[in-house]
């Protein structure tokens, strides 16, 4: 454990160098907030570590696999689980990281995801929004416990979240952040090829329909890059469901979904979603477990957070949201597309509440971004309307004098 403590403070020092660079680019950047968030995230590393000591955890297998004496570093290079082994190999076999140190390293990957989520939100939405009377929206979503729990351990959750948030930040200025965009795309694709599919579709739709005026060649560059990437990655994407070379994708995907759902429902805390209508499937993925079906004490804690998700979601359940969406920016439409497509796909294969709690942490921040942007736009419109009203009143007063 001494090694893990050393890594925690070493990474804290590395954070300060990273923050200095980000602070020079973004005047709004708060080192204080990010340092508080770091130790908050480390607390959840401790919570998860204690949990893993007495429960089944994939993190133990992820630590053991890179130690296979019959495999070298690049033997592990591939997509999904094998890529995590590839990432871990040099730390385990060259730097001799033990299990606790690897857990801290991957928790840091998850933390970097929160740093870039903060940048993604603040760069696009400078207006402060309070919810639940006096709680800052961004602070609330940055400190949601379930998000930190599932991104604070050795496994896929932390690096995929990091990749998604870096991508969301980079896509706002793709030309200036091209290397960051490529790096994050590789991370997403290598860990979860099907999620890269949703991200690519979201980016293309965002650029096609966003309100910003973008030159044709820039749009063409994004289309060619994303569509070309999908063509090259199609076998890996379909391979997630064993559908590469399939002659009937629809039928074969239905069979895969049924088999996967049966496997997960029999693994504990299962819910039979096969007969649910689509809206109820989506509700289950987004907001369950709630108090009535919480699996144990941990499920009750998660239920509180899910209730917060539900209350925030209800804030966009208005007619005005659809008018907002029609005129919204690239990043808003991209975020909503990524969130919805990911949710739609996962509802067909998820029927275990434990798996659902873990998987949805990947995409919920895209929903939070859309909600935050909508509320900020409403506030901005009210401020501008009030300002115009005062200006008109002042003009009328001057005209009478």
Describe this structure in words.
With 401 residues, the chain is an all-alpha fold. It has one domain. Helices cover 72% and strands 1% of the residues. It contains 18 helices and 2 strands. It has a two-stranded antiparallel sheet. Helix 1 packs parallel to helix 5 (99-124), helix 2 runs antiparallel to helix 5 (99-124) and helix 16 runs antiparallel to helix 18. The longest helix is centred in the last third of the chain and has 37 residues, at 364-400. The N and C termini lie far apart (78 Å). Mean pLDDT is 82; it is low at 239-254 and 256-269.
Name its key features.
mainly alpha, 18 helices, 2 strands
Brief synopsis:
The chain is 72% helix and 1% strand. With 401 residues, the protein is mainly alpha-helical.
- The helix content is over 70%
Number of domains: 1
What is the number of E strands? Answer: 2
Task: State which percent range the strand residues make up.
Answer: under 5%
* Order of adjacent strands in the largest pleated sheet: 1-2
Q: Encode the helix/strand succession as letters.
A: HHHHHEEHHHHHHHHHHHHH
Q: What is the CA–CA distance across the termini?
A: 78 Å
Report Rg.
Answer: 22 Å
Number of helices: 18
Q: Which term fits the overall shape?
A: globular
Main pleated sheet: 2 strands, antiparallel
Structural class: mainly alpha
Spans of at least 5 consecutive residues whose pLDDT stays below 50 are: 239-254, 256-269
| Mean pLDDT over the full residue set | 82
């Amino acid at each position: 454990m001494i090694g893990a403590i050393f890594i925690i403070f070493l990474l804290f020092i590395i954070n300060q160098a990273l923050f200095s660079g980000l602070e020079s680019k973004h005047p709004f950047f708060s080192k204080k907030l990010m340092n508080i968030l770091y130790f908050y995230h480390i607390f959840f590393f401790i919570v998860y570590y204690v949990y893993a000591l007495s429960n089944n955890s994939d993190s133990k297998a992820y630590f053991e696999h890179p130690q296979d004496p019959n495999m070298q570093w690049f033997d592990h290079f591939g997509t999904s689980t094998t890529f995590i082994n590839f990432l871990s190999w040099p730390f385990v076999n060259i730097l001799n990281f033990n299990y606790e140190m690897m857990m801290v390293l991957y928790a840091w990957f998850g933390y970097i995801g929160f740093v870039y989520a903060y940048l993604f939100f603040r760069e696009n939405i400078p207006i402060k929004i309070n919810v639940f009377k006096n709680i800052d929206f961004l602070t609330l979503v940055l400190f949601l416990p379930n998000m930190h729990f599932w991104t604070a351990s050795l496994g896929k959750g932390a690096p995929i979240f990091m990749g998604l948030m870096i991508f969301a930040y980079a896509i706002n200025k793709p030309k200036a952040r091209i290397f960051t965009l490529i790096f994050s795309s590789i991370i997403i694709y290598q860990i979860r090829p099907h999620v890269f599919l949703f991200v690519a579709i979201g980016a293309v739709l965002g650029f096609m329909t966003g309100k910003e005026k973008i030159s044709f060649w820039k749009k063409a560059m994004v289309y060619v890059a994303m569509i070309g990437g999908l063509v090259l990655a199609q076998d890996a994407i379909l391979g997630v469901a064993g559908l590469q070379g399939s002659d009937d994708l629809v039928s074969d995907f239905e069979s895969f979904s049924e088999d996967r759902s049966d496997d997960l429902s029999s693994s504990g805390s299962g819910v039979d979603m096969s007969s649910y209508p689509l809206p109820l499937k989506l509700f289950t993925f987004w907001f369950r477990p709630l108090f009535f079906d919480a699996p144990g004490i941990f499920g009750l804690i998660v239920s509180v957070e899910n209730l917060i998700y539900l209350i925030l979601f209800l804030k966009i359940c208005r007619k005005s949201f659809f008018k907002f969406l029609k005129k919204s920016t690239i990043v808003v439409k991209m975020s909503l597309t990524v969130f919805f497509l990911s949710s739609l796909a996962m509802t067909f294969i998820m029927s275990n509440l434990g798996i659902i709690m873990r998987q949805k942490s990947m995409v919920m921040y895209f929903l939070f971004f859309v909600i935050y942007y909508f509320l900020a736009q409403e506030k901005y419109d009210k401020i501008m309307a009030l300002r115009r009203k005062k200006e008109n009143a002042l003009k009328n007063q001057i005209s009478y004098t």
